[in-house]
Amino acid sequence: MDYTKFKTSAGVMAQGDTGLRSYMVSVFRNMSSALAVTAVVALLVSSSAALMSAIFDTKLLWLVIFAPLGMSIYMGVNITSMSVSTARFCLYIYSALMGLSLSSVFLYYTGESIVRVFAITSVVFGAMSLYGSSTKRDLSSIASFLYMGVFGVIVASLVNLFLQNGSVEFVISVLCVIIFTVMTAYDVQRLKDMYVNFGDSGESDVAQKIAVYGALSLYMNFINIFISLLRLFGERK
Protein backbone atom coordinates (compact mmCIF):
# COMPACT_ATOMS: atom_id res chain seq x y z
CA MET A 1 0.00 0.00 0.00
CA ASP A 2 1.11 3.55 -0.68
CA TYR A 3 0.40 5.11 2.69
CA THR A 4 1.50 8.54 1.51
CA LYS A 5 -1.73 8.81 -0.53
CA PHE A 6 -3.99 8.33 2.49
CA LYS A 7 -6.00 11.06 4.08
CA THR A 8 -4.18 12.34 7.16
CA SER A 9 -5.58 12.09 10.66
CA ALA A 10 -4.82 15.74 11.46
CA GLY A 11 -7.43 17.05 9.03
CA VAL A 12 -10.11 14.41 9.54
CA MET A 13 -10.20 13.13 13.12
CA ALA A 14 -11.28 15.11 16.16
CA GLN A 15 -8.57 15.01 18.77
CA GLY A 16 -10.76 13.34 21.38
CA ASP A 17 -12.36 10.78 19.05
CA THR A 18 -13.41 7.75 21.09
CA GLY A 19 -12.94 5.26 18.26
CA LEU A 20 -9.42 6.46 17.53
CA ARG A 21 -8.51 6.33 21.19
CA SER A 22 -9.83 2.77 21.51
CA TYR A 23 -7.94 1.76 18.38
CA MET A 24 -4.61 3.21 19.54
CA VAL A 25 -5.02 1.61 22.97
CA SER A 26 -5.52 -1.71 21.17
CA VAL A 27 -2.32 -1.17 19.15
CA PHE A 28 -0.18 -0.56 22.23
CA ARG A 29 -1.89 -3.31 24.21
CA ASN A 30 -1.06 -5.83 21.47
CA MET A 31 2.52 -4.55 21.31
CA SER A 32 2.95 -4.76 25.08
CA SER A 33 1.60 -8.32 25.13
CA ALA A 34 4.04 -9.30 22.36
CA LEU A 35 6.95 -7.79 24.31
CA ALA A 36 5.86 -9.73 27.41
CA VAL A 37 5.83 -13.00 25.42
CA THR A 38 9.31 -12.24 24.09
CA ALA A 39 10.67 -11.50 27.57
CA VAL A 40 9.19 -14.67 29.10
CA VAL A 41 10.47 -16.93 26.31
CA ALA A 42 13.93 -15.33 26.38
CA LEU A 43 14.19 -15.75 30.16
CA LEU A 44 13.01 -19.36 30.11
CA VAL A 45 15.33 -20.39 27.28
CA SER A 46 18.35 -18.56 28.70
CA SER A 47 17.89 -20.35 32.03
CA SER A 48 18.24 -23.77 30.37
CA ALA A 49 21.73 -24.77 29.27
CA ALA A 50 20.28 -27.65 27.25
CA LEU A 51 17.96 -25.39 25.26
CA MET A 52 20.68 -22.81 24.68
CA SER A 53 23.04 -25.49 23.41
CA ALA A 54 20.35 -26.99 21.18
CA ILE A 55 19.68 -23.59 19.57
CA PHE A 56 23.03 -21.85 19.38
CA ASP A 57 25.39 -24.80 18.96
CA THR A 58 23.54 -26.34 16.01
CA LYS A 59 22.20 -25.34 12.61
CA LEU A 60 18.90 -24.57 14.34
CA LEU A 61 20.47 -21.15 14.95
CA TRP A 62 19.77 -20.11 11.35
CA LEU A 63 16.12 -21.11 11.68
CA VAL A 64 15.85 -19.03 14.85
CA ILE A 65 17.44 -16.05 13.09
CA PHE A 66 15.29 -16.08 9.95
CA ALA A 67 11.98 -17.55 11.19
CA PRO A 68 10.72 -14.18 12.52
CA LEU A 69 11.33 -12.64 9.10
CA GLY A 70 9.26 -15.37 7.46
CA MET A 71 6.45 -14.90 9.98
CA SER A 72 6.37 -11.12 9.47
CA ILE A 73 6.16 -11.59 5.67
CA TYR A 74 3.37 -14.16 6.14
CA MET A 75 1.40 -11.72 8.28
CA GLY A 76 1.92 -8.88 5.82
CA VAL A 77 0.63 -10.96 2.91
CA ASN A 78 -2.33 -12.54 4.70
CA ILE A 79 -3.42 -9.97 7.29
CA THR A 80 -6.56 -8.91 5.38
CA SER A 81 -7.85 -12.49 5.05
CA MET A 82 -7.07 -13.49 8.66
CA SER A 83 -9.49 -13.29 11.53
CA VAL A 84 -8.55 -10.96 14.37
CA SER A 85 -7.79 -13.90 16.67
CA THR A 86 -5.55 -15.54 14.04
CA ALA A 87 -3.68 -12.27 13.50
CA ARG A 88 -3.04 -11.97 17.24
CA PHE A 89 -1.93 -15.59 17.41
CA CYS A 90 0.58 -14.98 14.59
CA LEU A 91 1.85 -11.88 16.42
CA TYR A 92 2.46 -13.96 19.54
CA ILE A 93 4.19 -16.70 17.53
CA TYR A 94 6.42 -14.03 16.01
CA SER A 95 7.24 -12.57 19.43
CA ALA A 96 7.99 -16.06 20.82
CA LEU A 97 10.41 -16.69 17.95
CA MET A 98 12.07 -13.38 18.72
CA GLY A 99 12.32 -14.50 22.33
CA LEU A 100 14.30 -17.54 21.22
CA SER A 101 16.70 -15.31 19.32
CA LEU A 102 17.04 -12.73 22.10
CA SER A 103 17.71 -15.33 24.80
CA SER A 104 21.41 -14.96 24.00
CA VAL A 105 21.52 -11.41 25.41
CA PHE A 106 21.24 -12.84 28.93
CA LEU A 107 24.50 -14.71 28.36
CA TYR A 108 26.46 -11.74 27.05
CA TYR A 109 25.13 -8.83 29.13
CA THR A 110 24.55 -8.30 32.83
CA GLY A 111 20.96 -8.33 34.07
CA GLU A 112 21.35 -4.82 35.46
CA SER A 113 22.42 -3.37 32.12
CA ILE A 114 19.60 -5.18 30.31
CA VAL A 115 17.04 -3.65 32.66
CA ARG A 116 18.66 -0.22 32.38
CA VAL A 117 18.73 -0.28 28.57
CA PHE A 118 15.14 -1.55 28.48
CA ALA A 119 14.09 1.42 30.62
CA ILE A 120 15.95 3.86 28.35
CA THR A 121 14.36 2.26 25.29
CA SER A 122 10.91 2.58 26.86
CA VAL A 123 11.43 6.30 27.51
CA VAL A 124 12.73 6.97 23.97
CA PHE A 125 9.97 4.88 22.40
CA GLY A 126 7.28 6.53 24.51
CA ALA A 127 8.50 10.04 23.68
CA MET A 128 8.57 9.38 19.94
CA SER A 129 5.16 7.69 20.07
CA LEU A 130 3.74 10.77 21.77
CA TYR A 131 5.38 13.00 19.17
CA GLY A 132 4.03 10.93 16.29
CA SER A 133 0.56 10.97 17.82
CA SER A 134 0.41 14.70 18.46
CA THR A 135 2.51 16.41 15.76
CA LYS A 136 0.76 18.28 12.95
CA ARG A 137 3.72 17.75 10.63
CA ASP A 138 3.19 15.20 7.87
CA LEU A 139 5.94 12.64 8.50
CA SER A 140 5.22 10.72 5.29
CA SER A 141 7.67 13.09 3.56
CA ILE A 142 10.57 11.23 5.21
CA ALA A 143 9.18 7.73 4.64
CA SER A 144 11.36 6.95 1.63
CA PHE A 145 14.53 7.89 3.53
CA LEU A 146 13.50 5.72 6.48
CA TYR A 147 12.82 2.68 4.33
CA MET A 148 16.09 3.12 2.46
CA GLY A 149 17.84 3.34 5.82
CA VAL A 150 16.15 0.16 7.06
CA PHE A 151 17.12 -1.67 3.88
CA GLY A 152 20.69 -0.47 4.24
CA VAL A 153 21.13 -1.61 7.84
CA ILE A 154 19.54 -5.00 7.05
CA VAL A 155 22.02 -5.61 4.24
CA ALA A 156 24.94 -4.36 6.34
CA SER A 157 23.87 -6.55 9.28
CA LEU A 158 23.64 -9.66 7.12
CA VAL A 159 27.09 -9.01 5.67
CA ASN A 160 28.53 -8.38 9.14
CA LEU A 161 27.20 -11.74 10.33
CA PHE A 162 30.09 -13.18 8.36
CA LEU A 163 32.63 -10.35 8.75
CA GLN A 164 32.16 -9.93 12.51
CA ASN A 165 33.69 -6.44 12.33
CA GLY A 166 33.33 -4.47 15.57
CA SER A 167 33.57 -1.06 13.91
CA VAL A 168 30.87 -1.94 11.39
CA GLU A 169 28.66 -3.22 14.21
CA PHE A 170 29.10 0.06 16.09
CA VAL A 171 28.09 2.13 13.04
CA ILE A 172 25.10 -0.15 12.37
CA SER A 173 23.96 0.17 15.98
CA VAL A 174 24.12 3.99 15.90
CA LEU A 175 22.20 4.10 12.62
CA CYS A 176 19.60 1.67 13.94
CA VAL A 177 18.94 3.82 17.00
CA ILE A 178 18.42 6.90 14.81
CA ILE A 179 16.39 5.21 12.09
CA PHE A 180 14.04 3.20 14.29
CA THR A 181 13.54 6.06 16.74
CA VAL A 182 12.31 8.29 13.93
CA MET A 183 10.44 5.32 12.42
CA THR A 184 8.45 5.01 15.65
CA ALA A 185 7.00 8.51 15.28
CA TYR A 186 6.28 7.88 11.60
CA ASP A 187 4.56 4.54 12.28
CA VAL A 188 2.34 5.97 15.01
CA GLN A 189 1.19 8.75 12.70
CA ARG A 190 0.73 6.25 9.86
CA LEU A 191 -1.41 4.02 12.08
CA LYS A 192 -3.66 6.97 12.89
CA ASP A 193 -3.98 7.71 9.17
CA MET A 194 -4.82 4.07 8.45
CA TYR A 195 -7.61 4.27 11.03
CA VAL A 196 -9.01 7.33 9.25
CA ASN A 197 -9.11 5.44 5.96
CA PHE A 198 -10.10 1.94 7.07
CA GLY A 199 -11.13 1.79 10.71
CA ASP A 200 -14.60 3.30 10.94
CA SER A 201 -14.82 2.10 14.53
CA GLY A 202 -12.09 1.25 17.01
CA GLU A 203 -13.83 -2.07 17.66
CA SER A 204 -14.44 -3.12 14.03
CA ASP A 205 -12.64 -6.16 12.60
CA VAL A 206 -10.77 -4.00 10.11
CA ALA A 207 -9.56 -1.63 12.81
CA GLN A 208 -8.57 -4.52 15.08
CA LYS A 209 -6.56 -6.25 12.35
CA ILE A 210 -4.83 -2.98 11.53
CA ALA A 211 -4.12 -2.63 15.25
CA VAL A 212 -2.47 -6.06 15.35
CA TYR A 213 -0.31 -5.43 12.30
CA GLY A 214 0.49 -1.94 13.58
CA ALA A 215 1.56 -3.50 16.87
CA LEU A 216 3.98 -5.69 14.92
CA SER A 217 5.54 -2.61 13.29
CA LEU A 218 5.95 -0.81 16.61
CA TYR A 219 7.21 -3.99 18.28
CA MET A 220 9.97 -4.30 15.67
CA ASN A 221 10.94 -0.66 16.19
CA PHE A 222 11.16 -1.18 19.95
CA ILE A 223 13.23 -4.37 19.64
CA ASN A 224 15.66 -2.80 17.17
CA ILE A 225 16.17 0.26 19.39
CA PHE A 226 16.66 -1.98 22.43
CA ILE A 227 19.19 -4.29 20.76
CA SER A 228 21.14 -1.37 19.29
CA LEU A 229 21.31 0.50 22.59
CA LEU A 230 22.34 -2.72 24.33
CA ARG A 231 25.22 -3.15 21.89
CA LEU A 232 26.30 0.43 22.48
CA PHE A 233 25.86 0.76 26.25
CA GLY A 234 25.28 -2.73 27.66
CA GLU A 235 27.77 -4.10 30.20
CA ARG A 236 29.16 -7.38 28.96
CA LYS A 237 29.72 -10.29 31.33
TrEMBL record:
Main location: membrane
Protein name per UniProt: Bax inhibitor-1/YccA family protein
TM ranges: 60-77, 89-108, 145-164, 170-189, 210-233
Family as reported in the entry's similarity comment: Belongs to the BI1 family.
Record-linked InterPro entries: Bax_inhibitor_1-related
Keywords: Membrane, Transmembrane, Transmembrane helix
Localization: Membrane
One Pfam family recorded for the sequence: Bax1-I
Membrane protein topology class: Multi-pass membrane protein
PANTHER family: BAX INHIBITOR-RELATED, PROTEIN LIFEGUARD 4
